[in-house]
Every structure is written in structure tokens, then in C-alpha cells.
């Protein structure tokens, strides 16, 4: 496709093992494997390989190896391979270099510099296999106090509560819209959320009508700038409504679903004509201030009769704490912060890798600011973007999150190998594509099982770690930074995170 | 013979009990004031639970002559007279001081680095801007200011008709030092025998911890401390004493005094039923307990604890929800006892009429002129 571009991968085939079954040929949407029937030989077009490893995984005889090609250019610490390749792409096209999934730059991952505490003698640890361990939490605004009345010696609640949504585990699937991901992938998330007692987020692509009855109880529906698929019925078939202002992978940038991906089904769900580009602008054109945001928040509450918490999702940026404070004051019940490692279906490479700040720092700053202002319990805080493991999740909670959004981790559970090619629409794993030939590769029954297993194993791990801390309810860890220590961090970083260094 | 001797000595090397402080509380539900002998003897009986690094007493009905004034017990570390001068200038500006004196101590008792201890009987002297601030809030804000802004000065207690006496030493030594058995009488006595776990043994850090009329003695370790502390900071309670128990004192003040919740409800906030239990409640209880857990999740006290919380007219005992630190209650006539050990109660009241152990999260509430404490007897195990 691009001239002068060196291939990134080498496809090696062990001829002694290959049985010419042609599975690899059929599995590769990029046409890397070509079979010449006359010669009875396979050829590989290395330069088209994206390293998704689909063929490697499915080859029945393990005849294939796909390896990165590392040392093609003369080694140069400044002009690294990706810098050169991107320049060549730009020179060839005059366009913006696109990419998919999350930032792969070696920026500091704070999770890997935080360690947890454990009980020893005076405060015994708790064994979750024998003792109850509670992970349930509620998302939404909490009152400052409760009114309780007594009649005949029995206490009764007399306050009216704000709408809150329980989640059995503080893990929620991130916004991934139908259109960006395939229908089977979307359905798998919904099914898994339902089974595990958590939530999935429709993203901005709408919620198919036939899914509303069954999955409404587990849906967070987004109201983004494009307003795709938004009507009263859509809003009412959700537990939470999320206004998407920003996204960690591309702060300050809107979305674009190319017309080729807008099939009949997508068109219907998004309420747009078939085959048209679905453009969601960066700003919501009715929101240029906190007051405007407040109007939208209350319009949505009004439309749903004040029965659903409204969340506002923003990208982690420099003054995120002040913005979050404004959002809470504007009436939001949940603030979702998406960090620089958040994934995406498509984003300009330069933006994805260079705009925004790590979520760990943003989360700590937001939690602190909301507490300093005495409004932390007026909202829940969701941390999103780059949660890779149960330990990342539990550390996020110790830093102040009520729950975490998991996106890429869920995709990986479905099969994604982080080839960063989601924007091409040719995801060989059937996740980020609308091509019916490819989407058939996912079976929601089976894929949702994998997702449920993922949630299950993370919750077991979280329970083990909580038990180790001598804590038997997840709420007692929220913002409990005493249980965290930093290793290999500088003073300013420890200050922003609000944690002590190890040994202190 | 040798073997037996070996075991005998082992019994008194309290390896196992080192992590479990001794707590004791006694209240006369008729409001009759009595001396400190019972409290001192009971805590002495649990000596193995102490460490010699901290102990203290809270006494209610202590200053009948000054009962309308806030009694501030303030210590000056290292007998720092400059701190005393600063504090007194601050007090003069913000309060009417009707009487003050050094808290009498026994010069024959040797303790580790005793500070200068002083008591002031004061009433608020509000500026016009503070006119509408309730007295209690006013006093709390001033106490918080003293504790967090003036080095070497700490307010031990700040309630009316109540006083806290504490320090580094075994509790009976503290009692001797302040001559509690000779000089004072009260209708509630609570006592604690050990310095707070994981904190330096210092005079301010010993139990009871108090704010206004509330005093707390606590055994255990609160693993939710960080979450509790951050929540309380949002309500302008600043933890300055480097101990996890402090959060309990502020949490009772916030929930019971400011928000007016009764202890029966507060107990369910500190030690709530498990979700599994809530799920099986009737609708009205389910609604209440769900709301409590949602709203007050940051005040759930996790980890092992037994506490005795006291304020005027009430003494409350509570253990954590999975009862890692049990509490024993006992009663005879108008006297009601709470303790870490039944033996300590029986040591001071051999002809006890009742003794019981309530389940985790079920408070024993001892109230003036009632038999409310018997309610927990019905639920005991
Ligand atoms: S999938 Fe494996 S065995 Fe089949 S044709 Fe490809 S390389 Fe050969
Ligand atoms: S979703 Fe598909 S295209 Fe995107 S990174 Fe994963 S495997 Fe590659």
C-alpha cells in the first residue's frame, strides 16, 4: 500500500509442517498468505502483515511464526523505526497517520510503581475462601446524611435517595460502540455484564432495539456529540446515562466512523442514513461552559424522570481536577476519567500518544480536589484507560476510584492481540470490524463466557488482595492511600499521588 | 516440676495477647458518682494486655462545680512554656477562662517524659462573625486549631463535666500519677491499657481519644483508617494524633452529635451487616440498611476492633462485624460493665448478676435511668 515502507513482521512458514490446508489464507483479512495452486506453494506478503497472530493461532500444525522485524534501518536512537515509517506514510499520502487501540509508548505506568500493604500480626488478614468478602458497590450521588424515623421502636428510612446503581464487582466494561466493534463483540459484552452483575457501556453508537428489554438493566448509554441513536426510549433503557465529553485516547478530538462501516444495521441503530460517515464532533455544540453542561445533565435527568444517575466522561488533561469539580457542581452523579492509555477504534497517532496525562495522576488529583471541596460523596469516580490487571484495578480504588472501566483488557479476553489496526475495519479476530465474514468468528455465547471468566478471576484476585490488607469490604479501600506505597517515584509524583514512599 | 514451672512462666509471657489491648468501662445507670478503684483494679487484672506504653481514663460527672463550662485538658510536651504562652493567648482571645490550674500529679510516680498538664474551664467568646456558630462547633474548631497549629500543645479533652487523663505508662501508673482514686468521682469510668498500635508511644496518642463530650477507647486496628480519615477531613475533622482510633471519636461526633443519629443506627454504620444478610431482610429494613451502607460506606470500620464510646448519660460497647475482638458485658444492680475480658469484670464484681457476649456489630448501649443494655442480652450468643 505504501511505497518505501519496510515490512514490520516476518512471516515464517515451516514447510515440513504445513499441510496446505489453507486455513491461514482464509483467516487473514489482509491477504498475507497466498496459495499458488499450480506450484502447490504458499507465498507470504510480509509487508501486509499486521502481527495479529490469527493465522499462527489457528494453524493446525503450528507451522507458522510471525515475528517482528527489528533491525532493518541503521540503528539510531533519535530516528527510531516508527518515526521513519510514519514519515514515509505521510510522504506517501499527505494524510494524518491513524492508529487503533491504546498508547504503546514507554511512559511511566504508575501502577507498576505502587505496591500494596498487607496485614501481619495485630490486624489479621482475612481468608476470602472462608470469610465473606464484599465487592459490591454503588455508583451515583450519595446524600450527606440520612433521615431516619422510628415507629414502634423500629428504624425506618425517611430520606429520599438519589438514584444509585449497584455493581457486584467494581469493574465495568468501557464504552465501545456498535460500529466501532462488531455486533457479536457488543453482544458479548452485554451478556457478560448481565451475567456478572456489572454494566457495559454502549458508547455513542446506540443500543439496538431488540437488546433493550434484556440488557437495559446493565447498560450505560452514552449521549455523545453526534447524538447517534439518542431518543427518549434509548435513554430510558439504561441504568446510567453518560455524557461523553472526552476520551483518553484522543482528548479534544471527535469520532469518525467511515461510511463503509455503516451497514443497514449500524445505520438503523445510529439513526443515520446507510453508508454515510458518522461524524461526532469534538465539542458538543451545545456545551461551551459548565452552565451548558449542567443544562444537558438536567435535560437528561428530566427526560428520564430523575431515575438514572448521569455520568460525565472526560479525558485526563492538565487541569482535570478543576474540571471534575465543575462537572460535579453542574449536577453530574458520576465523573469518569479516561487516561492517556485509553484505547480507541481510530485516532490520529500523534494525538493518541502525546495528548493527555496518565490516569493515575489525574485520578489522585481529582479525588483530592473533590475532597478538599467537600463534594466527593456527591459523585462516584470511575477510572478508565489502561487498566490491565486486577492489581491495577485495586490500586485505582485505593487511589480514590469507586470503580474502574475496562476496555482493552476485555478485548484481549475476546481475542484481541493489540495489533493496533482497529481503524482498518479488518480485525482478524472479528472484534473491530463490520465485515460479516470476519464477525462470524465471534460467538457471543462463547465470548461472553471468556469475559465472565475474566471478571471472575479478577474479583478472586481482588478478594485475595483485600483479605491480605485485612479489609473485607471494597468501600474500606476506596481512597485509602495509607495502603499504598510508591517505589522508584520522585517526590513530586508521590505528592500528586498522595502516597508515601516505600519504607516510610 | 521443672516442666510445670516452665509453663507457668510461659503463661505470663503474653505472646498471644500482646496485640489485644485491655478495655474496661463501668457506669452507674442511676447516675451516682463513684471513685476510680473499680476501673483501676479491673484494668490491672488485664495487665498482660498492656505494654506499659500507654494508658488512660475518661471520667463523666467529673466537675460538678464547673459543669456548665468546657473543661480543656491540655498537655505541653517537654513542659514547653512557650507553647503554653501561645495557647493561653489563643484561649484568652477566643474564650472566657473562668478558672485554670495545673492538673495535680503525684511527684513520687516516675513516668516516661511527663508533659505539663493543665486544665482550663472556659466558655466561648465569639466574635460577631461567629455569633451563629453553635457552641460545640465553635469549641471543636478551636480545638482543631490548637492541635494542628501549635507545636507541643495537645488538647486531651474538651467536653463539659468530663475529663481524660492519659499518658505513657501502665494505666494503674497513670491513675497513680494523676491520683485518680483519691481526687475524683464520676458515674462513668472508661479505661484503656495500651498505646495505639503502629504509632509512637506518646502522651497524646494514648487512649481515650476524645472530642467534646465524646470519648473512645479502642482495641484493635482499623484497616479502613485511610478511607475513614479522608471522609472525615471532608467534614473538617483533621486527624492529628497519628492513631487510627481518632477516626472513631470524630465519626461518633459527626454522626451522633452533628447528624443526630442514634447509636443503634451508628453501630450499623461502623459494623454493618453483610450484603448477604441485608438481601434477606424485609423490604423496609433492606431499604434502610442498603441506604446506610451506600451513604456511609466511608465510615465502615474495617479490621478488628472493640470500642467503648462514652458521652454524657451513655456508654456504648461495640465489636467489629465479624467479631475479631469480642466484648463482654456484665451487670449487677445499677452497675453495668463492659470489658475485653469477663475475668476483669468478675475481679471487681465477684457477685455479678449477668454476663454476656454480644455478636459482632450489635451494640451494648448503657443509658442513664434505663435498662436498655439488656436489649443486647437477648441477642447475645
Ligand atoms: S494454516 Fe498452517 S498448515 Fe494450514 S496452510 Fe497455513 S501454514 Fe499451512
Ligand atoms: S481489536 Fe482487532 S484490530 Fe484492534 S488491536 Fe485488537 S486484534 Fe487488532
From TrEMBL, chain A:
Q: Which EC number(s) are documented for this chain? A: 1.4.1.13
Look up the domain of life of the source. Bacteria
Q: Does the keyword 4Fe-4S apply?
A: yes
- List of residues binding [4Fe-4S] cluster 1: 18, 21, 24, 59
List ligand-binding residues for [4Fe-4S] cluster 2.
28, 49, 52, 55
Biological process GO annotation list? glutamate biosynthetic process
Which PROSITE patterns does UniProt cross-reference here?
4FE4S_FER_1 (PS00198), 4FE4S_FER_2 (PS51379)
Which segments constitute the 4Fe-4S ferredoxin-type domain? 9-38, 41-69
Q: Which reaction(s) are listed as its catalytic activity?
A: 2 L-glutamate + NADP(+) = L-glutamine + 2-oxoglutarate + NADPH + H(+)
Which controlled-vocabulary keywords does the entry list?
Answer: 4Fe-4S, Amino-acid biosynthesis, Glutamate biosynthesis, Iron, Iron-sulfur, Metal-binding, Oxidoreductase
* InterPro entries in the record: 4Fe4S_Fe-S-bd (IPR017896), 4Fe4S_Fe_S_CS (IPR017900), Aldolase_TIM (IPR013785), GltB (IPR024188), GltB_archl_type (IPR043578), Glu_synthdom (IPR002932)
Q: Which Pfam families match?
A: Fer4_7, Glu_synthase
Which CDD domains does the entry link to?
GltS_FMN (cd02808)
List the Gene Ontology MF annotations in alphabetical order: 4 iron, 4 sulfur cluster binding; glutamate synthase (NADPH) activity; metal ion binding
Entry similarity comment? Belongs to the glutamate synthase family.
Protein name (Swiss-Prot/TrEMBL): glutamate synthase (NADPH)
What is the protein's species of origin? Desulfoscipio gibsoniae DSM 7213
Taxonomy of the source species: Bacteria, Bacillati, Bacillota, Clostridia, Eubacteriales
TrEMBL record, chain B:
Extract the SUPFAM superfamilies matched here.
N-terminal nucleophile aminohydrolases (Ntn hydrolases)
| Matches recorded under Pfam families | GATase_2
- Where in the sequence is the active site? 21 (for gatase activity)
- The Glutamine amidotransferase type-2 domain is annotated at 21-369
- In Swiss-Prot or TrEMBL terms, this protein is called Glutamate synthase family protein
Q: From which organism does this entry originate?
A: Desulfoscipio gibsoniae DSM 7213
